[in-house]
Fold this sequence. Notes:
Elements (H helix, E strand, L loop, with lengths): L6 E4 L5 H12 L4 E6 L11 E4 L5 H10 L5 E4 L14 H29 L4 E5 L12 H21 L5 E6 L18 H14 L3 E3 L2 H8 L4 H5 L9
Parallel strand pairs: 1-2, 1-4, 2-3, 4-5, 5-6, 6-7
Helix pairs in contact: 1-5, 2-3, 3-4
The chain binds NADP nicotinamide-adenine-dinucleotide phosphate.
Family: Belongs to the short-chain dehydrogenases/reductases (SDR) family.
Pfam families: adh_short
GO molecular function, one term: oxidoreductase activity
Amino acid sequence: MNIEGAVVLVTGANRGLGAEYVRQLLDRGAAKVYAGARSPESVTNAGAIPLKLDVTSAADIQAAVQQCSDLTMLINNAGVVIGSRVLAENSLENAKAEFETNVWGPFNLAKAFAPVLSANGGGAIVNVLSAVSWMSIKEVATYAMSKSAAWSLTNALRLELARQGTLVVAVHPAFIDTDMAAGVDMPKTSPHQVVERTLDGVAAGLPEVLADDTSAFVKNSLPKHIETFYPKVAGPRP
Ligand SMILES: NC(=O)c1ccc[n+]([C@@H]2O[C@H](COP(=O)([O-])OP(=O)(O)OC[C@H]3O[C@@H](n4cnc5c(N)ncnc54)[C@H](OP(=O)(O)O)[C@@H]3O)[C@@H](O)[C@H]2O)c1
């Protein structure tokens, strides 16, 4: 799909990866970029159109569909990590809060915008997922659950929307150098690289973007994921 001339909505566009999507979309000649944010006044890119959009709000989504009737690309980027172990005291509440933004947000937005994309020629939906769609990490286990569910959602949308010609793209990055991973002392991918690979992938019509070497490693390890990622619990239990 052509980025040049596209009309795009980016969720969580006020900072981090979302702000980088806005920048590069405008650089590549997108005709219009709606910058969705819980606080539209926090959108700083003057080339974008700020749009009040909390992805957990049905009313905000409905208003966005009214305002963005010319949309050709939806980028589900907004996300939260609370950082909960699966058996932590508040793990259910944390998991529900993460699912609200990371799963039901893209779910409701995709459902709401699918007819708009169809009316405008098919277009694309890009879902920002993670390497932890394919592996768990103890400290962010409930977040990883949400990204696995969002991966399944992405595959389901691809099946459903093929008939209307909508490209559905899964983006899998490992750690990215944004506020979300500020407390992580591990190698991080630049937002620039994640967005560049995403937009190259969309332009090439690819269904999946591996945003860095770590994500490629995690995906390629899936046939041996138990031994590779969970070696302490890989053997038979007595
Ligand atoms: N950073 C990483 O290591 C990493 C790795 C893999 C995947 N990802 C994914 O990449 C995406 C972007 O994350 P990031 O790294 O840019 O994180 P970030 O710096 O923490 O930014 C998160 C963005 O999401 C927005 N947001 C959160 N909840 C929202 C809601 N209910 N409605 C609308 N916007 C909401 C935030 O808005 P406010 O300013 O209002 O809070 C902010 O703009 C997320 O889907 C994340 O899961 C991140």
